[in-house]
Amino acid sequence: MISVNEALDALFALVSPPDPEDVRLRKASGRVLAREAVATRDQPPFSSSSMDGYALRGADALEGAELTVIGEAAAGHSFEGMVSPGQAVRIFTGAPLPTGADHVEIQENVTRTGDHIRLESPEKSPANVRPLGGDFRAGDTLRAPRRLSPADIALLASMNVDRVTVARRPIVALISTGDELVMPGETPGPDQIIASNTLGLEALLAAEGADPRVLPIARDTPESLESAFRFARGADLIVTIGGASDGDHDLVRSVAGTQGLMQSFYKVAMRPGKPLMAGRLADVPIIGLPGNPVSALVCGHVFLVPVLRAMLGLPAQLASRRTAPLAHDLGKNGPREHYMRARFNEDGALGVFERQDSSLLGLLSSADALAVRPPHDPPRAAGERLAYLPLG
Length: 392
Ligand code: AMP
Ligand code: MG
Known about the structure:
With 392 residues, this protein is of the alpha+beta class. It contains 7 helices and 28 strands. It has helices spanning 4-14, 150-158, 197-208, 222-231, 252-258, 293-311, 361-365; strands at residues 21-24, 32-33, 37-38, 48-49, 53-56, 66-73, 87-91, 103-106, 110-113, 116-119, 129-130, 141-142, 146-147, 163-166, 171-176, 181-182, 193-194, 211-214, 237-241, 262-266, 270-271, 277-281, 284-289, 322-325, 337-344, 350-352, 369-373, 385-390. A 6-stranded mixed sheet has the order 8-5-7-6-10-9, with no helix packed on it. Strand 9 and strand 10 form a beta hairpin. Helix 1 (4-14) packs across helix 6 and helix 3 (197-208) packs parallel to helix 6 (293-311). The longest helix has 19 residues, at 293-311. It binds adenosine monophosphate and magnesium ion. Adenosine monophosphate is lined by residues 176, 178, 180-181, 193, 195-198, 241-245, 247, 250, 290-293.
């Protein structure tokens, strides 16, 4: 059995990013920038005032100075003349600084009488001026790859970039397998259950930037699975759920085998999620997840999310882990890496749930984190720091 890290490396070797695409900036939030974006202008494009007040020469910014107001500058409306010694221009936030002026005295420090002002307690010059290009200069870039945040969108907008090149969303075909499954909203027979992790995985993948496609449930017959694989041909990645163990009704590997599966690995030393399978099926990467609801979602966090990030052109690496103090003592771990549902208490310490059965979705839903126990981890005492994967 290979380790989680070895499995992840093998998965990274199976996938590659699809060709990028151009999208409008307004549709680019959360997408991964694939090519650097270049500013076509300086920001601000002129020196401007950061306050409402009076623009003047710094040399005139003296206690008790009396100046003549010769005009006004507002945002979008320059003052066209020149500010000479002894003169000032009424100015508002965002207005271009008039020629000759290099200082803005805020209105609170000024007494005005008609066209004259007196500086009561002026600030040290220069003040309240935003220099040309203080935010960025023409030619400055936003580097790729990078997942675009709302702040990035605003920055690109101010660069006057209205289209960006982003990674195409990888199409992920999700194939649930099992005679016992019906989709949510349908009426299950007396021996049936609802396909649950399928929609959880769809949500997880969509949130990471994939284009997940939930295919019709494949029944536990070769014909049904074959037709599901045919449906999945155009995808960038195929993910099967269930049917991956060694039981009589676990057909994923055998049916994929008859269709030319090039298996990369089968079985990973982890809990939950041991019967993980990966390979290529007719040149499409395929990952076979175990069917137990929690196993499938844990594998989603541990494997699918990093794989998807690699397909989006982001660095190929382990899902980022943090550490937190344990809220209680914890027994030793067995030979497999164990991902345990856990929750933070009010003090920020991690409490690991007693029950860890891989069918219990309620406990996964109320967990904040998956505590990560390395193989053969010794017993841990309350207060010791433990690695965890954040959830949600
Ligand atoms: P399998 O890997 O097919 O043996 O499935 C293991 C367990 O997970 C069984 O109890 C299945 O009923 C259950 N299971 C399989 N697929 C799903 C699914 N998509 N949603 C919820 N439970 C599932
Ligand atoms: Mg099954």
